[in-house]
Design a protein that fits this description.
By secondary structure, the protein is mainly alpha-helical. About 8% of the residues have low confidence.
Length: 215
């Protein structure tokens, strides 16, 4: 005969215990903290640029006229479009539209690759003319122009590395979407990847006027 006073086990206990805990808010806060450190990194470089720009305004202006501003503006349009496709992909996931989300995420990756190809073409042209850090041709120029191109290659190169890192992250997100690890009920990883990609775009928007539209 069973003891009525004995504790009974709820049938729902094992089921609730098996549900994995996901701290979505913590993941978002962690991502925002990471993005803040990235802003500090580029913010310091922007301050260095401003200091040298104030000291050598003429040299910075003449070097800015030498850059391929058409490629710079084209790359801005490419990245802005990629931010749009990234946002559409996230919205599609929130609506449970898996195929649409994967399609627009793939479009985002293609646009990121287009940006890198354009940057490769631009850098190849400049290097072909002997303009690169510590090159004999560049060292013949005034000190302000040497500083301009040093900052140009450093900041745009660092940004390019962030684009490559973003493409790797988006590649993982695409794989997660395909496997169902990211879905309508759990899409915080895709949202965080989108935040990172938007940061990459915003940084480029600041780089465009500093180098390509320097007046």
């Amino acid at each position: 005969m069973s003891d009525p006073c004995a504790p009974t086990q709820s049938s729902s206990a094992p089921r609730s215990a098996s549900v994995p805990h996901r701290d979505h808010e913590g993941a978002k806060i962690g991502m925002w903290l990471f993005l803040f450190t990235e802003l500090l990194l580029f913010g310091g470089l922007f301050l260095v640029y401003a200091a040298y720009r104030a000291r050598y305004p003429g040299e910075f202006h003449s070097c800015g006229q030498e850059l391929h501003y058409v490629i710079g503006i084209a790359n801005t349009a490419v990245l802005l479009t990629s931010s749009l496709t990234m946002a559409i992909s996230i919205t599609a996931t929130q609506l449970g539209q898996k195929k649409r989300s994967m399609l627009f995420l793939a479009c985002t990756m293609v646009l990121g690759c287009v940006f890198l190809v354009n940057k490769y073409i631009e850098w190849s042209g400049e290097i072909g003319h002997g303009i690169y850090p510590s090159s004999p041709e560049l060292l013949k120029r005034p000190h302000g122009e040497i500083l301009f191109y040093g900052l140009y290659y450093t900041m745009t190169g660092l940004h390019g590395l962030h684009v490559i890192a973003g493409l790797v992250v988006l590649g993982f997100m695409l794989a997660f979407l395909r496997r169902g690890a990211i879905h309508q009920g759990d899409h915080v990883k895709l949202e965080n990847a989108g935040l990172y990609w938007h940061l990459v775009d915003v940084i480029w928007i600041f780089l465009l006027p500093l180098f390509y539209l320097a007046a």
